[in-house]
Structures are given as C-alpha cells and as structure tokens.
What we know:
By secondary structure, the chain is α+β, with helices and mostly antiparallel strands. It has three helices and three strands. The protein has a three-stranded antiparallel beta sheet with strand order 1-2-3. It is elongated and about 105 Å long.
Amino acid sequence: MPAPDPVNHRQNLRDLMADYDHQLSHILQVGETAQRLRLRNADPLRNPSCHCAKPSGQRHVATVLSWSETGRTHTRSVPAPERARVRCLTAQYRRLRQARTAVIQLHRQILRNIDHLQEALRLSPPASACASAPMPRAGSRRPRG
C-alpha cells in the first residue's frame, strides 16, 4: 500500500486556511446586527375609530423585530422610517451566522486534514531494531559495569 502524500495534505491545509481567513474577514467586517425581522399581521388597534378595530376590519401588516433573551422571545414593532435600516441589520446578522457556520465546518476539515498529515508523516518502527534487541526477563537485573 503506497504511503499517503504529505505534500498533498499540506496543500489541502493551505487551501482550507485560505478559506478560513476569507470567512473570518467576513465576520470581522460585520458591524451592528439585529437578530430577526418578520412581517406579520398586527393585533387590532385599541383605537375604536380605526377600521381594523371593527369585527370585519382588515388588520394592519406590521414589521416586527423579534429576538430571544434568557429563553424568552421578545418582539418590538418597527416604525416605517426604521424598516430599511432594520432589514439591513438583520441581513448582516444572517451573513454573520452563515460565516460562523462556515468557519465551524472549515475548522473540522482542518483538524481532519492535520490528522491525515500526521498519519502520512509517521514513520514505521524499523523491523530490525525490534528483532535484534533481546527483551530482559522479568525480575532479572542488568549487570553493572
């Protein structure tokens, strides 16, 4: 069986590290983020003169920011002038999470490749060294001299 090629493993590691650096640069470029943005039908307003307060009234569509904190989901309505900014922040958050996932996968690949390189570089013990040296018997002393 031919020995694995350490040159190939080294090149693979270089390529993986380049990808790792690329993903890390994406992470370092991210500024502020916001976790999640979603559109949903808002609850009817408390204003009785609004059309959505009537039983047959159509509900308003609201943009809501939601996030999780200490195991609880919180929501906050986003006013119309802030929607574009919040959409941008949530897109940044998604890019950050995707880059983080890519870094985790690359890290696992790098570790596997290091293991393969280590295996390729490991020398077999010489057969003659093991056969020529007699093993001492248990309980016997070596002569001093």
